[in-house]
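Title: Request for sanity check on Flagellar biosynthesis protein FlhF prediction

Description:
We are preparing a figure and want to confirm that the structure record we downloaded matches what your pipeline produces today. Could someone re-run it with the sequence below and paste the raw structure tokens into this thread? We only need the token string, no images.
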Amino acid sequence: MSLKRFQARSHKDAMRQVREALGADAIIVMSRNNDAGNEIFAVREEELDSLAAPSTVTSQPDDLTRQLLHDVQEMRLLLQQQVATSEPLDQRKWCYLKLRSAGYSDTLARELVALLPAHLNAAKATQEELQAWLTEQLQMRLKGAQRDWELLHHEGVVALVGPTGVGKTTTTAKLAAHYVMQMGAESLLLVTTDSFRIGAQQQLATYAELLNVDIFALHDDADLAELQGKMQNKRLVLVDTVGMSQRDHRLTQRVAALATPELGAQPRLALLLNTAAQQATLNEVASIYHGIAKQLNMPLNDCILTKVDEASCVGGALDTAIRHHLSVQAVSSGQQVPEDILAPDFQALVSSSMAVSDAAKDAYEDTDIDLPESLSARSQTAIQHAHMLRDCVEGLAAALPDFAAVQQQLLNVSRVDTAVATLPATTAFARWATAKPAANFHHSTPHFGFSQAGQLELQPLLQQHAAPWYEQTHLRGHLFDFLPTGEELDALNEQSLAWLARVNRQHRFYHQGKKASAADILRRHGIKLDSYSRTYRAEVHRLSISLAAVARAEGSEEYLQLACVKLQPSSSKKRAVERYFLVYPGCTAEQLYDFIGMMLSTDELDRLTRSAWPLVEQHVDNADASSLLYLSALLASSAASLAHSAAPTAATLRAQLMALTQRTGKADAHKLLPAVWQCVLAYDAFHLGARAHEAPA
């Protein structure tokens, strides 16, 4: 071993000599001042394992050298023992500090830290692994349809709300521009209520003129009849609301004004969150608007992140969306229309929020933190699954009417009454299924009802017990999945009842005295109505309708309306879908659109019922064929209704169910059906386990 001595006028110069001679990893054995300046004894680190006498030390006796080396070895052994016996490194503090410096709240940070897996709460875990786990956890907690303009597919009124200066007018224009590019301008209406800010209405009016979109200024003296007229045949109405401080006492009154009947019973609210604002401010804004929405019985489930380009960190906005269960519908940055708005990308958003500098994290480094104990891996998984199941079941109850009753029936066959003969008194329209069973199925699909608003009612009506349609006099209209007899059609017309019947494209009718197939008549003589966009089987289609007057018999003067519905998918590689219907003579175009929408939302019920049968049969004991058919149809109607639902929470719920069952692709009814069933069973199993755990021994 070579212990070297270095002498210099100052300690700095002596250290420079050490680095030059032995390298930056040299071990300083001793340093002391003397008459000549500063003296340092040093040795290379790799030579400490040998206790050989130094050969190059000229001014010190061997016993001093040996003593120094012996002391160094003792210190080294002591340090190794301390490291071996010290407590394992707790990575929870690093995770907590990372989340807090990224803008996330103390509440959410502690919740995630408690879920940190044991294999990551160890010294060997790298910061990259910890950050990847945190990113994944945050992504799971964000709600919304990623990379999809779900908000633009909504049919009805969407009102953008939020404090002053959050960017409501510009965001309205950006959304309008994207809607026009996807759906066209004729089915969109812009409404502005901002009469406070100078130039606000003129700004939106300029965008409306550029986009060739109708606009209406809704103020205290506005003609609401004119508003109703402008809303006719509009698929989407975007409302730019007045901006106010969340603490302004007039805010509740302004939000309540959106509940005017002319705008619809329940406009969909989307809260704009200024990403550049502090997390505490965003939390206050969301809490106040949630309270107002609850007080006014108006749903607030969506948010749009704005001013992302001005934010040093987006964590506070994401934290607000997670804690207040808001679905992120869009991300806006900059003033350019329509370029500076995007559909949400959760991975990009979370990764951006976690890319904070070490200096930001160091600001929390000296904080005394009392962190919760980590849970076991099994407990962590159970809690995560329980939260997901709870969110899904609550979402089903919010999106589907009477799902609580449906859930009880699916879990308890004794609650099922298969002998019901008539549809409920609240039912406005009935969808009468054909008596012929679906392929490879030995049971006829049950009948179903629709509410006055055209919402599919989940409870089925078994064909073997159902009273004939003409005995159910409370119904306002009848939708047949088959063509009734001539006598039945005559009876319907004599009673002035609304009806629509599905026919085959080869079915032959008389047009202008000549008999031809339905397809040929409409191809040659069909009059086209306005087309519009509609979601069909989890994909946006362009729906167009052609009409022609036909008679059932030669020389008959009683004309009916023959309609061809063509659904053109957005992907040019897929073939268009065609459906043919016969409609009663007095049917208006608006009513025809409604009837066709009801039929399209239920045209898979026969196959869905067939698919549900083995799932139900496997888990339901002591059930006869009628009960199994009823439960299968109940599950089928739930999946079909969810697949076509335009409720504010439906898109998020569909994504959650797909993730829960690890399914990919479009969230169509056939994928949602087993997901709904597994969700109901698993949620019930968690409750049974919890009750068993709480029960006294």
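Thanks, this matches our download. Confidence is low (pLDDT under 50) at residues 51-61, 83-88, 689-697.
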